[in-house]
Amino acid sequence: MECLLGLLKVKVVRGVNLAICDPLTHSSDPYVVLRLGQQKVKSSIKYHTINPEWNEELTLSITNMMHPVKIELFDHDTFTKDDSMGDAEFCILDFVEIAKRDLSDVPDGTVMKTIHPEKANCFATESHITWKDGKISQDIVLKLRNTETGELVLHLHWVNIPGVAR
Mind giving me the DSSP string for 11-80? Predict the structure, then answer.
C-alpha cells in the first residue's frame, strides 16, 4: 500500500474558447475529468457555452508524485457518446516537493518556482508555485491538446494530512 503524502485540491476555474461540439447552437456542454493513477473525479456540466465558469474544487489523494494529473474535457450528449473536447496533463513533482518542505521561515508571497511553457508540458503561460497565507498554491493555464482550440484555467493548493511526515 502506498503512503498518503497529502491532498491536492484542484479548483477548476474556467474554460476559455473551447471547441464547438453542437453546431446548431454554436456551443458545447462541457465538463472536466481529472485522473491521477486509479482516481477519477468529474466537474459538473456547464450547458450551452464554450467559455464555462466552474469554480469547482476537486480533490485528489497524492500517494505518488511521479504520476501526472491527466485532464480530459468532454461535451455532454444525451443520446450519444460524449464528444472529446481535448486533453492536457501536468506534472506535480515540483509542486509536491515544495509543499513537503518546512516553509515556516519563508516570507509570505514568495514565489518558490516558476514553470515555463515548453514542448514537454501543456502550459499556455508561465506558472508560479507560491507560498502565500500559509499555503502552497499554483495558478495554471493549460493549452488543450487533440482539439483545434481551448484552454483550461486551474488553481492548485496543497493540504497536509495531520500525522503525515513532511
Answer: EEEEEES----BTTTTB--EEEEEEETTEEEE-----S-SS-EEEEEEEEEES-TTSPEEEEEEE--SSS
Category of 103 on φ-ψ map: left (φ > 0), alpha (ψ -120 to 50) or beta = alpha
The phi, psi pair for 52, rounded to 5°, reads -70, 145
Calpha distance 135→148 (Å, rounded) = 36
pLDDT of 120 strictly over 90 = no
Domains, the chain, ordered by start: 6-158 (2.60.40.150)
pTM of the model: 0.94
- The cell for 82 is 460524449
pLDDT in tens, 31-71: 999 999 999 999 999 999 999 999 999 999 999 999 999 99
